[in-house]
Amino acid sequence: MNAMRGAPGPAHVLVTGAAGFVGRALVARLLQAHAGGTWSLARLTTLDLTTDLQARQGAAAGLLHAIEGSIADAAVVQRAFAEPVDVVLHLASVPGGTAEQQYALGRDVNLHGTLHLLEACAAQAQRGGPVPRFVFASTVGVFGAPLPPVVDDDTRPCPGMTYGAHKLMAEAAVADFTRRGGCDGLSLRLAGVLARPPAPTGQRSAFLSELLRAPAAGRDVVCPMSPQATTWASSTPNVVDNLLHAATVPAAALPRHRALTLPALHFSMAELVDALVARHGRAARAHVHFAPEPEIEALFGQQPPLHTPAARAAGFTDDGDLATLLRRATEADQADGDAP
User: Fold this and answer.
1) CA distances from 321 to 27, 176, 255, 276 (A)
2) Which of the 8 DSSP states describes residue 155?
3) 16, 37, 152, 159: which one has the fewest Cβ atoms less than 10 Å from its Cβ?
4) What pLDDT shows up at residue 62?
5) Taking the CA of residue 216 as centre, how many other CA atoms within 13 Å lie in the half-sphere pointing to its CB?
């Protein structure tokens, strides 16, 4: 058992995709937890295409080791494992729309890059080093469309896009490397995460974040789904909570296939607008204009109730209610925008 799961001594944590908005929030929380004494970190390695994170967290320069490069490059991954790794929090990916349009890029990062990380974990274990807890950020996109009347722990994945297909393949690899003793893995199927920064990322669901941001700023926004369209979402802090819980949850609480669909809130666009009005006042309603696009609504606006008893039994949570999701998402968005 490694340091993050109860054994004495500090741990080496590796975060991939650390320059993304969830990655930045995760790294900040890890450093805060270390400073507060709730986590004991010997080293925090971040891996992404940019190392601007090191400048952001300059006060932690002695703890933080930033590596610039892609997980698609096995040599870059090997650099991240120069010191034995206890926990891998794997967020790096090429997002849905980009992965669909650029197959080779999506394959090299989302599939081959994940295999590079798993193989590095297994090589470390074979050398007699720690068997890392490997937390993989998967996606509800593994289910595809159309969805059944309820999505639950027995719903069979059937991806409708290359992004979801590669994530499902990677889930199988996480389970297989766990079976072989190369890691202690767990795949978390994430729903939409709010609020995503306004910069273009290739995520076709990014309009949901603008729906939160624009009315608060007094700007008009077009919703490409109808008022009755329903979706799933979590705040960035809730996702970080669940990622950190995944690093420490006992293996006995996990299913044999090592994949869990995380709890998320289920709501309609009309309910979201009502929550925005409750938070920002009646003027917020006038800023939201509906112009449904059938393809977008088919992808993100026909999501049924979500039942996740296995994840809840293992200690994973959602935001609780829509008002809390909006508050936490907005606060995290503002904190990210204020970061140097």
Assistant:
1) 26, 36, 27, 13
2) P
3) 37
4) 81
5) 17
Task: Give the CATH number, domain containing residue 172.
Answer: 3.40.50.720
So what's the pLDDT on residue 323? Answer: 96
- What's the CA angle centered on 179, arms 176 and 180, to 5 degrees? 90
Average pLDDT over residues 71-93: 97
The whole-angstrom distance between residue 190's C-alpha and the CA centroid of its chain comes to 6
Whether 201 is in a domain gets the answer no
Query: What whole-number distance in Å separates Cα of residue 27 and Cα of residue 277?
Result: 32
Residue at token pair 């059944």: 148
Give tens-digit pLDDT for 279-312.
999 999 999 999 999 989 988 899 999 999 999 9
Q: What are 235's strand-pairing partners?
A: 194
Q: With H, G, I as helix, E, B as strand and everything else as coil, classify residue 36.
A: helix
Q: How far apart are the first and last CA of the chain?
A: 37
* 18 part of a folded domain: yes
Characterize 34-50 residue by residue with b for buried, 16 or more Cβ atoms within 10 angstroms of its Cβ, and e for exposed.
beeeebebebbbbbbee
Positive/negative CA dihedral, 6, 80, 173, 318: positive
Closest CA to 333 of 161, 218, 214: 214
Of 300, 269, 296, 292, which is closest to residue 143 (Cα–Cα)? 300
| Nearest of 241, 267, 239, 244 to residue 323 by alpha carbon | 267
**Residues 106 and 114 sit within 8 Å (Cβ to Cβ):** no
Cα–Cα distance, 107 to 212 (Å, whole number): 32
Does 73 map to a domain? Answer: yes
Domain of 38, in residue numbers:
3-193+233-263+305-319
CA distance to 2, 39, 95, 137, 200, per residue, from 76 (Å): 24, 27, 21, 20, 26
- Name the domain count of the chain: 1
Q: Note whether residue 340 is domain-resident.
A: no
Tell me the CA distances in angstroms from 108 to 23, 53, 88, 90, 263, one per residue in order.
Answer: 20, 24, 19, 15, 29
